[in-house]
Amino acid sequence: MFKEAIYHRPKDNYAYACAEDELHIRIRTKKDDITEVTLMAGDPYEWEHDQWITTMVQMKKTGSDQLFDYWLASIKPPYRRLRYGFILSDGEETVCFTEKGFYPEPPLDDIAYYFCFPYLNGSDVFKAPKWVKNTVWYQIFPERFANGDQSNDPEGTLPWGSEGPTPENFFGGDLEGVIQNIDYLKTLGINGIYFTPIFKAHSNHKYDTIDYMEIDPQFGNEETLKRLVQTCHENGIKVMLDAVFNHSGFYFPQFQDVLANGEKSPYKDWFHAREFPLKTEPSPNYDAFGFVPEMPKLNTENPQVKEYLLEVGRYWVREFDIDGWRLDVANEVSHAFWQEFRREVKAIKPDLYILGEIWHDSMPWLRGDQFDAVMNYPFTTNILNMFSKGTVGPTEFMENMTTVIHMYSENVNQGAFNLIGSHDTPRILTECGGDINKVKQIFAILLTFYGTPCIYYGDEIGMDGGMDPGCRECMRWEADQQNRDLFEHVQKLIQLRKENDVLANGGDLQFLYGACEGDACFAYSRSNREKTAIVIVNNSQDPTQYELPFELKRKTVKNLWTGEEYTAEAEKLVATVEGNGFAILEFENSPI
User: Fold this and answer.
1) Closest CA to 534 of 477, 491, 573, 567
2) What pLDDT score does 511 carry?
3) Is 321 left (phi over 0), alpha (psi -120 to 50) or beta?
4) Residues of the chain with pLDDT under 50
5) Contact criterion met (CB below 8 Å) for 345 and 260
6) Using CA atoms in the order 195, 200, 201, 203, what is the torsion angle rounded to 10 degrees?
7) Cis-peptide, bond into residue 277, ω within 30° of zero
8) Annotated catalytic sites, by residue?
9) Residue 112's CB: how many other CB atoms inside 10 A?
10) Taking Cα atoms as reference points, which of 43, 67, 225, 46 lies closest to residue 152?
Protein backbone atom coordinates (compact mmCIF):
# COMPACT_ATOMS: atom_id res chain seq x y z
CA MET A 1 0.00 0.00 0.00
CA PHE A 2 1.40 3.37 -1.07
CA LYS A 3 0.48 5.37 2.01
CA GLU A 4 2.44 8.43 0.89
CA ALA A 5 -0.04 8.96 -1.96
CA ILE A 6 -3.10 8.99 0.30
CA TYR A 7 -4.40 12.51 0.86
CA HIS A 8 -7.31 14.19 2.59
CA ARG A 9 -7.93 17.44 4.37
CA PRO A 10 -11.23 18.40 6.04
CA LYS A 11 -11.85 21.45 3.87
CA ASP A 12 -12.54 22.79 0.38
CA ASN A 13 -12.92 20.11 -2.32
CA TYR A 14 -12.16 17.20 0.08
CA ALA A 15 -14.85 17.84 2.71
CA TYR A 16 -17.72 20.22 2.07
CA ALA A 17 -21.38 20.81 2.69
CA CYS A 18 -23.22 19.94 -0.52
CA ALA A 19 -26.62 20.67 1.04
CA GLU A 20 -27.87 22.03 4.33
CA ASP A 21 -28.02 18.52 5.81
CA GLU A 22 -25.44 16.62 3.77
CA LEU A 23 -21.66 16.40 3.50
CA HIS A 24 -19.43 15.14 0.72
CA ILE A 25 -16.21 13.51 1.90
CA ARG A 26 -13.44 12.73 -0.60
CA ILE A 27 -10.09 10.99 -0.38
CA ARG A 28 -7.29 10.55 -2.91
CA THR A 29 -5.22 7.36 -3.27
CA LYS A 30 -2.53 6.08 -5.63
CA LYS A 31 -3.98 4.94 -8.92
CA ASP A 32 -4.91 1.24 -9.01
CA ASP A 33 -3.52 0.69 -5.51
CA ILE A 34 -6.50 0.72 -3.15
CA THR A 35 -9.39 -1.62 -3.89
CA GLU A 36 -11.85 -0.53 -1.20
CA VAL A 37 -12.38 2.55 0.97
CA THR A 38 -14.87 2.86 3.82
CA LEU A 39 -15.72 6.07 5.63
CA MET A 40 -15.88 5.59 9.39
CA ALA A 41 -17.84 8.47 10.91
CA GLY A 42 -19.75 9.53 13.97
CA ASP A 43 -20.92 12.44 16.07
CA PRO A 44 -18.09 13.44 18.43
CA TYR A 45 -20.47 13.57 21.40
CA GLU A 46 -22.44 10.39 20.77
CA TRP A 47 -21.11 7.63 23.07
CA GLU A 48 -22.67 4.57 24.63
CA HIS A 49 -21.09 2.48 27.40
CA ASP A 50 -17.82 4.36 26.90
CA GLN A 51 -17.85 3.42 23.20
CA TRP A 52 -17.92 5.95 20.39
CA ILE A 53 -20.88 5.24 18.10
CA THR A 54 -19.81 5.18 14.46
CA THR A 55 -21.30 4.48 11.04
CA MET A 56 -19.55 2.78 8.15
CA VAL A 57 -20.21 4.18 4.64
CA GLN A 58 -18.82 2.49 1.53
CA MET A 59 -17.02 5.06 -0.62
CA LYS A 60 -17.45 5.18 -4.41
CA LYS A 61 -14.57 5.67 -6.82
CA THR A 62 -15.54 8.78 -8.79
CA GLY A 63 -12.63 8.93 -11.20
CA SER A 64 -8.97 8.37 -11.94
CA ASP A 65 -6.34 10.62 -13.45
CA GLN A 66 -2.78 9.75 -14.43
CA LEU A 67 -1.59 9.40 -10.82
CA PHE A 68 -4.52 9.04 -8.45
CA ASP A 69 -7.92 7.51 -7.77
CA TYR A 70 -10.61 9.66 -6.16
CA TRP A 71 -13.27 8.35 -3.76
CA LEU A 72 -16.48 9.94 -2.49
CA ALA A 73 -19.03 9.32 0.25
CA SER A 74 -22.18 11.29 1.01
CA ILE A 75 -23.32 11.42 4.60
CA LYS A 76 -26.04 13.21 6.53
CA PRO A 77 -24.83 13.78 10.11
CA PRO A 78 -27.96 13.73 12.30
CA TYR A 79 -26.58 16.48 14.52
CA ARG A 80 -24.62 18.29 11.76
CA ARG A 81 -21.28 17.46 13.46
CA LEU A 82 -18.80 14.86 12.30
CA ARG A 83 -15.56 13.16 13.26
CA TYR A 84 -14.31 10.65 10.71
CA GLY A 85 -11.53 8.48 9.35
CA PHE A 86 -11.00 6.05 6.49
CA ILE A 87 -10.58 2.29 6.35
CA LEU A 88 -8.48 1.45 3.29
CA SER A 89 -7.66 -1.93 1.80
CA ASP A 90 -5.47 -2.98 -1.10
CA GLY A 91 -6.56 -6.59 -0.90
CA GLU A 92 -3.64 -7.61 1.29
CA GLU A 93 -3.35 -4.89 3.91
CA THR A 94 -6.04 -2.90 5.71
CA VAL A 95 -5.33 0.32 7.61
CA CYS A 96 -7.20 3.13 9.29
CA PHE A 97 -6.23 6.61 8.12
CA THR A 98 -6.90 9.49 10.52
CA GLU A 99 -5.73 13.05 11.03
CA LYS A 100 -2.93 11.68 13.22
CA GLY A 101 -1.74 9.12 10.68
CA PHE A 102 -2.16 5.40 9.91
CA TYR A 103 -3.17 2.67 12.34
CA PRO A 104 -3.66 -1.08 11.88
CA GLU A 105 -6.97 -0.81 13.76
CA PRO A 106 -9.27 2.20 14.30
CA PRO A 107 -8.28 3.95 17.55
CA LEU A 108 -11.51 4.26 19.52
CA ASP A 109 -10.33 5.62 22.85
CA ASP A 110 -10.13 9.27 21.75
CA ILE A 111 -11.98 11.08 18.92
CA ALA A 112 -9.08 13.56 18.68
CA TYR A 113 -7.40 11.07 16.36
CA TYR A 114 -10.01 11.75 13.68
CA PHE A 115 -10.68 14.38 11.06
CA CYS A 116 -13.19 16.99 12.17
CA PHE A 117 -16.07 18.74 10.41
CA PRO A 118 -17.14 20.89 13.38
CA TYR A 119 -20.62 21.89 12.27
CA LEU A 120 -22.63 21.99 9.05
CA ASN A 121 -23.79 25.59 8.89
CA GLY A 122 -26.34 26.25 6.17
CA SER A 123 -24.66 29.50 5.20
CA ASP A 124 -21.46 27.57 4.40
CA VAL A 125 -23.10 25.62 1.56
CA PHE A 126 -21.70 26.86 -1.75
CA LYS A 127 -24.69 28.14 -3.71
CA ALA A 128 -24.35 29.57 -7.18
CA PRO A 129 -27.61 31.13 -8.47
CA LYS A 130 -30.03 28.34 -9.43
CA TRP A 131 -30.68 29.77 -12.88
CA VAL A 132 -27.04 29.52 -13.96
CA LYS A 133 -27.04 25.76 -14.64
CA ASN A 134 -29.80 26.26 -17.20
CA THR A 135 -28.09 29.16 -18.95
CA VAL A 136 -26.25 29.03 -22.27
CA TRP A 137 -24.10 32.16 -22.52
CA TYR A 138 -23.08 34.10 -25.60
CA GLN A 139 -20.04 36.35 -25.29
CA ILE A 140 -20.32 39.62 -27.22
CA PHE A 141 -17.45 41.95 -27.97
CA PRO A 142 -19.71 45.01 -28.47
CA GLU A 143 -17.50 46.87 -30.98
CA ARG A 144 -17.65 43.90 -33.37
CA PHE A 145 -21.13 42.38 -33.06
CA ALA A 146 -23.45 44.78 -34.93
CA ASN A 147 -23.68 48.48 -35.76
CA GLY A 148 -27.26 49.45 -34.97
CA ASP A 149 -26.82 53.22 -34.67
CA GLN A 150 -24.39 54.94 -37.00
CA SER A 151 -24.98 58.30 -35.31
CA ASN A 152 -22.71 57.29 -32.42
CA ASP A 153 -19.87 55.90 -34.54
CA PRO A 154 -16.46 57.15 -33.37
CA GLU A 155 -14.33 59.21 -35.73
CA GLY A 156 -12.65 57.09 -38.39
CA THR A 157 -15.17 54.25 -38.20
CA LEU A 158 -14.64 51.78 -41.05
CA PRO A 159 -17.39 50.12 -43.09
CA TRP A 160 -18.52 46.92 -41.37
CA GLY A 161 -16.03 44.11 -41.97
CA SER A 162 -14.20 46.08 -44.66
CA GLU A 163 -10.81 45.03 -43.33
CA GLY A 164 -9.30 42.79 -40.70
CA PRO A 165 -9.32 43.71 -37.00
CA THR A 166 -6.40 45.57 -35.48
CA PRO A 167 -5.82 46.90 -31.95
CA GLU A 168 -6.71 50.42 -33.18
CA ASN A 169 -9.53 50.22 -35.74
CA PHE A 170 -13.25 50.78 -35.12
CA PHE A 171 -16.30 49.42 -36.96
CA GLY A 172 -19.13 50.98 -34.97
CA GLY A 173 -20.57 48.05 -33.06
CA ASP A 174 -22.93 49.17 -30.30
CA LEU A 175 -25.71 48.18 -27.91
CA GLU A 176 -28.42 49.10 -30.41
CA GLY A 177 -26.93 46.48 -32.71
CA VAL A 178 -27.44 43.87 -30.02
CA ILE A 179 -31.04 44.94 -29.46
CA GLN A 180 -31.74 44.59 -33.17
CA ASN A 181 -30.36 41.03 -33.20
CA ILE A 182 -32.04 39.58 -30.12
CA ASP A 183 -34.16 37.38 -32.40
CA TYR A 184 -30.97 35.83 -33.81
CA LEU A 185 -29.83 34.91 -30.31
CA LYS A 186 -33.26 33.56 -29.38
CA THR A 187 -33.31 31.43 -32.52
CA LEU A 188 -29.92 29.99 -31.59
CA GLY A 189 -31.24 29.23 -28.09
CA ILE A 190 -29.16 31.69 -26.07
CA ASN A 191 -30.49 32.78 -22.67
CA GLY A 192 -27.50 34.70 -21.30
CA ILE A 193 -25.25 37.42 -22.77
CA TYR A 194 -21.80 38.19 -21.40
CA PHE A 195 -20.58 41.59 -22.62
CA THR A 196 -16.94 42.59 -22.58
CA PRO A 197 -16.66 46.12 -21.06
CA ILE A 198 -19.09 48.79 -22.19
CA PHE A 199 -17.78 51.65 -20.02
CA LYS A 200 -16.08 54.74 -21.38
CA ALA A 201 -12.56 53.91 -22.51
CA HIS A 202 -9.94 54.85 -25.10
CA SER A 203 -9.50 51.50 -26.86
CA ASN A 204 -11.83 49.36 -28.94
CA HIS A 205 -11.72 46.59 -26.31
CA LYS A 206 -12.58 48.95 -23.39
CA TYR A 207 -10.43 47.21 -20.78
CA ASP A 208 -8.70 50.57 -20.17
CA THR A 209 -11.54 52.31 -18.34
CA ILE A 210 -11.79 56.11 -18.27
CA ASP A 211 -15.11 56.34 -16.40
CA TYR A 212 -16.70 53.33 -14.68
CA MET A 213 -19.97 55.22 -14.24
CA GLU A 214 -20.51 56.13 -17.91
CA ILE A 215 -21.35 53.97 -20.91
CA ASP A 216 -18.95 54.60 -23.76
CA PRO A 217 -20.71 57.04 -26.14
CA GLN A 218 -19.87 54.81 -29.13
CA PHE A 219 -22.04 52.08 -27.57
CA GLY A 220 -25.00 54.27 -26.60
CA ASN A 221 -26.16 55.77 -23.33
CA GLU A 222 -27.93 54.77 -20.15
CA GLU A 223 -31.31 54.73 -21.89
CA THR A 224 -29.91 52.34 -24.50
CA LEU A 225 -28.63 49.97 -21.83
CA LYS A 226 -31.96 50.05 -20.00
CA ARG A 227 -33.77 49.15 -23.22
CA LEU A 228 -31.25 46.38 -23.88
CA VAL A 229 -31.65 44.84 -20.41
CA GLN A 230 -35.43 45.13 -20.60
CA THR A 231 -35.51 43.57 -24.08
CA CYS A 232 -33.26 40.73 -22.92
CA HIS A 233 -35.34 40.06 -19.83
CA GLU A 234 -38.56 40.08 -21.83
CA ASN A 235 -36.99 37.38 -24.00
CA GLY A 236 -35.70 35.27 -21.13
CA ILE A 237 -32.08 36.37 -21.52
CA LYS A 238 -29.79 37.27 -18.60
CA VAL A 239 -27.23 40.09 -18.91
CA MET A 240 -23.71 40.04 -17.47
CA LEU A 241 -21.37 43.04 -17.63
CA ASP A 242 -17.57 43.03 -17.47
CA ALA A 243 -15.56 45.28 -15.14
CA VAL A 244 -11.84 45.81 -14.53
CA PHE A 245 -11.22 46.58 -10.88
CA ASN A 246 -7.58 45.51 -10.95
CA HIS A 247 -6.48 48.46 -13.06
CA SER A 248 -7.86 51.59 -14.67
CA GLY A 249 -7.06 53.09 -18.03
CA PHE A 250 -4.33 55.65 -18.70
CA TYR A 251 -6.93 58.41 -19.17
CA PHE A 252 -8.77 57.67 -15.93
CA PRO A 253 -9.06 61.22 -14.49
CA GLN A 254 -7.61 60.26 -11.12
CA PHE A 255 -4.53 58.76 -12.75
CA GLN A 256 -4.12 61.80 -14.99
CA ASP A 257 -4.15 63.96 -11.85
CA VAL A 258 -1.31 61.90 -10.34
CA LEU A 259 0.64 62.18 -13.60
CA ALA A 260 0.27 65.95 -13.50
CA ASN A 261 0.67 66.63 -9.78
CA GLY A 262 2.70 63.74 -8.42
CA GLU A 263 2.87 63.57 -4.62
CA LYS A 264 0.59 66.62 -4.36
CA SER A 265 -2.28 64.80 -6.05
CA PRO A 266 -5.17 63.82 -3.73
CA TYR A 267 -5.26 60.55 -5.69
CA LYS A 268 -1.61 59.59 -5.25
CA ASP A 269 -2.60 56.67 -3.00
CA TRP A 270 -5.17 55.37 -5.48
CA PHE A 271 -2.33 53.61 -7.29
CA HIS A 272 0.90 51.78 -6.47
CA ALA A 273 3.57 54.38 -7.24
CA ARG A 274 7.12 53.41 -6.36
CA GLU A 275 8.42 56.94 -6.82
CA PHE A 276 7.43 60.37 -8.14
CA PRO A 277 7.10 61.78 -10.68
CA LEU A 278 5.47 58.88 -12.52
CA LYS A 279 7.28 57.61 -15.60
CA THR A 280 6.03 55.39 -18.39
CA GLU A 281 9.36 54.79 -20.15
CA PRO A 282 11.32 52.59 -20.47
CA SER A 283 8.97 50.77 -18.11
CA PRO A 284 6.47 52.24 -15.64
CA ASN A 285 7.69 53.11 -12.13
CA TYR A 286 4.23 52.19 -10.84
CA ASP A 287 2.44 48.85 -10.73
CA ALA A 288 0.41 48.08 -13.83
CA PHE A 289 -1.29 45.17 -15.53
CA GLY A 290 1.80 43.30 -16.65
CA PHE A 291 4.14 46.17 -17.49
CA VAL A 292 1.58 48.00 -19.65
CA PRO A 293 1.85 51.70 -18.66
CA GLU A 294 -1.64 52.42 -20.05
CA MET A 295 -3.19 50.15 -17.39
CA PRO A 296 -2.10 51.38 -13.91
CA LYS A 297 -3.02 49.05 -11.06
CA LEU A 298 -5.60 50.36 -8.61
CA ASN A 299 -4.95 50.24 -4.87
CA THR A 300 -8.09 48.42 -3.75
CA GLU A 301 -6.96 48.62 -0.12
CA ASN A 302 -7.31 52.39 -0.18
CA PRO A 303 -10.69 53.25 1.44
CA GLN A 304 -11.58 55.81 -1.26
CA VAL A 305 -10.75 53.42 -4.10
CA LYS A 306 -12.62 50.63 -2.40
CA GLU A 307 -15.77 52.70 -1.93
CA TYR A 308 -15.58 54.03 -5.50
CA LEU A 309 -15.38 50.52 -6.97
CA LEU A 310 -17.99 49.07 -4.63
CA GLU A 311 -20.39 51.78 -5.74
CA VAL A 312 -19.64 50.83 -9.37
CA GLY A 313 -20.64 47.26 -8.52
CA ARG A 314 -23.79 48.39 -6.75
CA TYR A 315 -24.82 51.07 -9.25
CA TRP A 316 -25.17 48.95 -12.39
CA VAL A 317 -27.07 46.26 -10.48
CA ARG A 318 -29.32 48.73 -8.67
CA GLU A 319 -30.10 51.05 -11.58
CA PHE A 320 -30.03 48.67 -14.57
CA ASP A 321 -31.00 45.30 -13.07
CA ILE A 322 -28.07 43.42 -14.60
CA ASP A 323 -27.81 39.73 -13.69
CA GLY A 324 -24.09 39.22 -13.38
CA TRP A 325 -20.60 40.67 -13.07
CA ARG A 326 -17.61 39.22 -14.89
CA LEU A 327 -14.46 40.49 -13.14
CA ASP A 328 -11.27 40.92 -15.15
CA VAL A 329 -7.84 39.93 -13.73
CA ALA A 330 -9.66 38.89 -10.60
CA ASN A 331 -6.75 36.97 -9.07
CA GLU A 332 -4.63 40.13 -8.64
CA VAL A 333 -7.20 41.85 -6.40
CA SER A 334 -7.30 41.03 -2.68
CA HIS A 335 -9.63 38.38 -1.30
CA ALA A 336 -10.83 40.92 1.26
CA PHE A 337 -12.05 43.24 -1.49
CA TRP A 338 -13.95 40.48 -3.27
CA GLN A 339 -15.54 39.34 -0.03
CA GLU A 340 -16.88 42.85 0.54
CA PHE A 341 -17.86 43.20 -3.11
CA ARG A 342 -19.95 40.02 -2.89
CA ARG A 343 -21.76 41.21 0.23
CA GLU A 344 -22.58 44.59 -1.33
CA VAL A 345 -23.93 43.44 -4.70
CA LYS A 346 -25.73 40.36 -3.35
CA ALA A 347 -27.52 42.59 -0.84
CA ILE A 348 -29.17 44.26 -3.83
CA LYS A 349 -29.74 41.14 -5.94
CA PRO A 350 -29.16 37.85 -4.11
CA ASP A 351 -29.19 35.71 -7.26
CA LEU A 352 -26.60 37.85 -9.07
CA TYR A 353 -23.90 35.72 -10.76
CA ILE A 354 -20.30 36.70 -9.93
CA LEU A 355 -17.70 35.34 -12.36
CA GLY A 356 -13.97 35.82 -11.91
CA GLU A 357 -11.38 35.73 -14.67
CA ILE A 358 -8.83 33.27 -13.29
CA TRP A 359 -6.97 30.85 -15.53
CA HIS A 360 -5.55 28.49 -12.89
CA ASP A 361 -6.66 26.42 -9.87
CA SER A 362 -9.09 28.81 -8.18
CA MET A 363 -10.16 27.07 -4.97
CA PRO A 364 -9.24 30.10 -2.76
CA TRP A 365 -11.87 32.19 -4.61
CA LEU A 366 -14.56 29.47 -4.63
CA ARG A 367 -15.35 28.97 -0.97
CA GLY A 368 -18.72 30.70 -1.15
CA ASP A 369 -17.56 34.09 0.11
CA GLN A 370 -16.28 35.57 -3.16
CA PHE A 371 -17.15 34.22 -6.62
CA ASP A 372 -19.87 31.93 -7.91
CA ALA A 373 -17.56 30.68 -10.65
CA VAL A 374 -14.38 31.34 -12.57
CA MET A 375 -13.72 31.06 -16.28
CA ASN A 376 -12.89 27.37 -16.64
CA TYR A 377 -9.77 27.61 -18.79
CA PRO A 378 -8.39 24.24 -17.53
CA PHE A 379 -11.45 22.73 -19.27
CA THR A 380 -10.56 24.69 -22.41
CA THR A 381 -6.92 23.58 -22.27
CA ASN A 382 -7.86 19.90 -22.14
CA ILE A 383 -10.21 20.31 -25.09
CA LEU A 384 -7.49 22.00 -27.16
CA ASN A 385 -4.80 19.51 -26.19
CA MET A 386 -6.86 16.70 -27.66
CA PHE A 387 -8.73 18.20 -30.59
CA SER A 388 -6.31 20.94 -31.66
CA LYS A 389 -2.78 20.02 -30.64
CA GLY A 390 -3.25 16.25 -30.58
CA THR A 391 -0.91 15.98 -27.61
CA VAL A 392 -3.24 13.67 -25.65
CA GLY A 393 -5.46 10.76 -26.62
CA PRO A 394 -8.91 9.84 -25.27
CA THR A 395 -7.62 8.08 -22.15
CA GLU A 396 -5.35 10.99 -21.17
CA PHE A 397 -8.16 13.40 -21.96
CA MET A 398 -10.45 11.63 -19.49
CA GLU A 399 -7.69 11.53 -16.88
CA ASN A 400 -6.89 15.22 -17.27
CA MET A 401 -10.54 16.23 -17.15
CA THR A 402 -10.98 14.08 -14.04
CA THR A 403 -8.24 16.16 -12.41
CA VAL A 404 -10.14 19.33 -13.30
CA ILE A 405 -13.42 18.01 -11.92
CA HIS A 406 -11.84 16.98 -8.63
CA MET A 407 -10.17 20.38 -8.16
CA TYR A 408 -13.54 21.66 -6.91
CA SER A 409 -16.67 20.56 -5.11
CA GLU A 410 -19.64 19.24 -7.04
CA ASN A 411 -21.54 22.44 -6.13
CA VAL A 412 -18.82 24.53 -7.78
CA ASN A 413 -18.65 22.31 -10.86
CA GLN A 414 -22.37 22.66 -11.52
CA GLY A 415 -22.00 26.43 -11.93
CA ALA A 416 -18.61 26.40 -13.66
CA PHE A 417 -18.28 28.79 -16.61
CA ASN A 418 -17.09 26.55 -19.47
CA LEU A 419 -15.76 28.04 -22.67
CA ILE A 420 -13.90 26.94 -25.80
CA GLY A 421 -12.74 30.39 -26.87
CA SER A 422 -12.96 34.07 -26.02
CA HIS A 423 -11.67 37.50 -27.00
CA ASP A 424 -8.33 36.42 -25.47
CA THR A 425 -7.82 33.22 -27.51
CA PRO A 426 -7.72 32.09 -31.15
CA ARG A 427 -11.10 31.03 -32.47
CA ILE A 428 -11.94 27.37 -32.04
CA LEU A 429 -12.19 26.71 -35.80
CA THR A 430 -8.69 28.11 -36.27
CA GLU A 431 -7.41 26.04 -33.34
CA CYS A 432 -8.82 22.95 -35.07
CA GLY A 433 -7.14 23.76 -38.38
CA GLY A 434 -10.47 24.40 -40.08
CA ASP A 435 -11.83 20.92 -39.28
CA ILE A 436 -15.59 21.43 -38.84
CA ASN A 437 -16.13 17.88 -37.55
CA LYS A 438 -13.76 18.52 -34.64
CA VAL A 439 -15.58 21.77 -33.89
CA LYS A 440 -18.90 19.91 -33.89
CA GLN A 441 -17.52 17.36 -31.43
CA ILE A 442 -16.22 20.12 -29.18
CA PHE A 443 -19.62 21.83 -29.13
CA ALA A 444 -21.19 18.46 -28.24
CA ILE A 445 -18.91 18.25 -25.18
CA LEU A 446 -19.38 21.91 -24.21
CA LEU A 447 -23.17 21.61 -24.28
CA THR A 448 -23.48 18.31 -22.42
CA PHE A 449 -20.91 18.94 -19.66
CA TYR A 450 -21.10 20.09 -16.05
CA GLY A 451 -21.58 23.83 -15.60
CA THR A 452 -22.84 26.67 -17.73
CA PRO A 453 -21.51 26.81 -21.33
CA CYS A 454 -20.44 29.96 -23.16
CA ILE A 455 -20.21 30.49 -26.93
CA TYR A 456 -17.97 33.24 -28.30
CA TYR A 457 -19.86 35.31 -30.85
CA GLY A 458 -19.48 33.95 -34.39
CA ASP A 459 -18.06 30.56 -33.41
CA GLU A 460 -21.50 29.08 -34.09
CA ILE A 461 -21.30 30.15 -37.75
CA GLY A 462 -17.71 29.05 -38.35
CA MET A 463 -15.83 32.33 -38.01
CA ASP A 464 -12.08 31.92 -37.83
CA GLY A 465 -9.21 34.06 -36.57
CA GLY A 466 -5.95 33.84 -34.69
CA MET A 467 -4.95 35.33 -31.36
CA ASP A 468 -6.03 38.88 -30.48
CA PRO A 469 -6.75 40.89 -32.57
CA GLY A 470 -7.51 38.15 -35.11
CA CYS A 471 -10.29 36.70 -32.98
CA ARG A 472 -12.11 40.05 -32.87
CA GLU A 473 -13.38 40.26 -36.45
CA CYS A 474 -16.75 41.82 -37.24
CA MET A 475 -19.69 39.42 -36.94
CA ARG A 476 -20.56 38.03 -40.34
CA TRP A 477 -24.23 38.68 -40.94
CA GLU A 478 -24.37 37.77 -44.64
CA ALA A 479 -25.93 34.30 -44.99
CA ASP A 480 -23.42 33.24 -47.62
CA GLN A 481 -20.58 33.92 -45.15
CA GLN A 482 -22.13 31.79 -42.41
CA ASN A 483 -21.80 28.05 -41.97
CA ARG A 484 -25.49 27.37 -41.46
CA ASP A 485 -24.94 23.65 -40.98
CA LEU A 486 -22.73 24.42 -37.97
CA PHE A 487 -25.29 26.95 -36.70
CA GLU A 488 -28.05 24.31 -36.84
CA HIS A 489 -25.74 21.80 -35.14
CA VAL A 490 -25.15 24.15 -32.19
CA GLN A 491 -28.82 25.14 -32.13
CA LYS A 492 -29.86 21.48 -31.87
CA LEU A 493 -27.40 20.78 -29.04
CA ILE A 494 -28.70 23.78 -27.08
CA GLN A 495 -32.26 22.56 -27.57
CA LEU A 496 -31.33 19.06 -26.38
CA ARG A 497 -29.74 20.56 -23.27
CA LYS A 498 -32.94 22.47 -22.54
CA GLU A 499 -35.26 19.53 -23.21
CA ASN A 500 -33.28 16.92 -21.26
CA ASP A 501 -32.79 18.03 -17.69
CA VAL A 502 -30.08 15.45 -17.05
CA LEU A 503 -27.75 17.27 -19.48
CA ALA A 504 -28.01 20.57 -17.60
CA ASN A 505 -28.76 19.47 -14.05
CA GLY A 506 -27.32 15.96 -13.83
CA GLY A 507 -25.82 15.90 -10.36
CA ASP A 508 -23.16 13.37 -11.28
CA LEU A 509 -20.62 13.37 -14.10
CA GLN A 510 -18.30 10.41 -14.43
CA PHE A 511 -15.90 9.34 -17.16
CA LEU A 512 -16.46 5.79 -18.35
CA TYR A 513 -13.74 3.35 -19.21
CA GLY A 514 -15.90 1.07 -21.34
CA ALA A 515 -14.79 -1.39 -23.98
CA CYS A 516 -13.64 0.63 -26.98
CA GLU A 517 -11.68 -0.47 -30.03
CA GLY A 518 -8.16 0.71 -29.26
CA ASP A 519 -7.94 4.20 -27.75
CA ALA A 520 -10.34 5.67 -30.28
CA CYS A 521 -13.03 7.17 -28.10
CA PHE A 522 -14.01 8.39 -24.68
CA ALA A 523 -17.31 8.61 -22.85
CA TYR A 524 -18.88 10.17 -19.79
CA SER A 525 -22.22 9.89 -18.08
CA ARG A 526 -24.56 12.50 -16.60
CA SER A 527 -26.98 11.14 -14.02
CA ASN A 528 -29.84 12.26 -11.83
CA ARG A 529 -32.35 10.19 -9.89
CA GLU A 530 -34.48 9.39 -12.92
CA LYS A 531 -32.18 9.15 -15.92
CA THR A 532 -28.64 8.65 -17.15
CA ALA A 533 -27.24 10.19 -20.31
CA ILE A 534 -24.05 8.91 -21.94
CA VAL A 535 -21.95 11.02 -24.28
CA ILE A 536 -19.54 9.06 -26.51
CA VAL A 537 -16.99 10.87 -28.67
CA ASN A 538 -15.00 9.09 -31.37
CA ASN A 539 -11.59 10.69 -31.85
CA SER A 540 -10.64 8.54 -34.84
CA GLN A 541 -11.56 8.90 -38.50
CA ASP A 542 -13.03 5.40 -38.62
CA PRO A 543 -16.29 4.14 -37.12
CA THR A 544 -15.82 2.49 -33.73
CA GLN A 545 -17.85 0.38 -31.35
CA TYR A 546 -18.23 1.20 -27.69
CA GLU A 547 -19.55 -1.26 -25.12
CA LEU A 548 -21.46 0.64 -22.47
CA PRO A 549 -20.52 -0.37 -18.91
CA PHE A 550 -24.14 -0.63 -17.75
CA GLU A 551 -26.66 -3.44 -17.42
CA LEU A 552 -29.29 -2.38 -19.92
CA LYS A 553 -31.18 -5.54 -20.75
CA ARG A 554 -34.85 -4.80 -21.44
CA LYS A 555 -34.27 -1.08 -20.93
CA THR A 556 -35.31 1.43 -23.57
CA VAL A 557 -32.34 3.41 -24.80
CA LYS A 558 -32.87 6.61 -26.76
CA ASN A 559 -30.33 8.23 -29.01
CA LEU A 560 -31.04 11.89 -28.23
CA TRP A 561 -29.14 13.10 -31.28
CA THR A 562 -30.92 10.95 -33.90
CA GLY A 563 -34.20 10.36 -32.04
CA GLU A 564 -33.92 6.57 -32.42
CA GLU A 565 -35.21 4.36 -29.61
CA TYR A 566 -34.58 0.66 -29.05
CA THR A 567 -34.82 -1.89 -26.28
CA ALA A 568 -31.57 -3.57 -25.32
CA GLU A 569 -31.91 -7.36 -25.68
CA ALA A 570 -28.49 -8.28 -24.26
CA GLU A 571 -26.99 -7.44 -20.87
CA LYS A 572 -24.48 -5.14 -22.54
CA LEU A 573 -25.17 -2.60 -25.25
CA VAL A 574 -22.65 -1.87 -27.99
CA ALA A 575 -22.98 1.55 -29.63
CA THR A 576 -21.51 2.32 -33.05
CA VAL A 577 -20.11 5.83 -33.39
CA GLU A 578 -19.16 7.29 -36.76
CA GLY A 579 -15.65 8.51 -37.43
CA ASN A 580 -15.04 11.95 -35.88
CA GLY A 581 -18.58 11.75 -34.57
CA PHE A 582 -20.43 11.42 -31.30
CA ALA A 583 -23.51 9.86 -29.74
CA ILE A 584 -25.77 10.98 -26.90
CA LEU A 585 -27.73 8.11 -25.38
CA GLU A 586 -30.25 8.21 -22.55
CA PHE A 587 -32.03 5.59 -20.45
CA GLU A 588 -34.11 5.49 -17.27
CA ASN A 589 -32.44 4.41 -14.06
CA SER A 590 -33.65 1.37 -12.18
CA PRO A 591 -35.76 2.13 -9.09
CA ILE A 592 -33.65 2.28 -5.94
Assistant:
1) 573
2) 93
3) left
4) 592
5) no
6) 60
7) yes
8) 328, 357
9) 12
10) 225
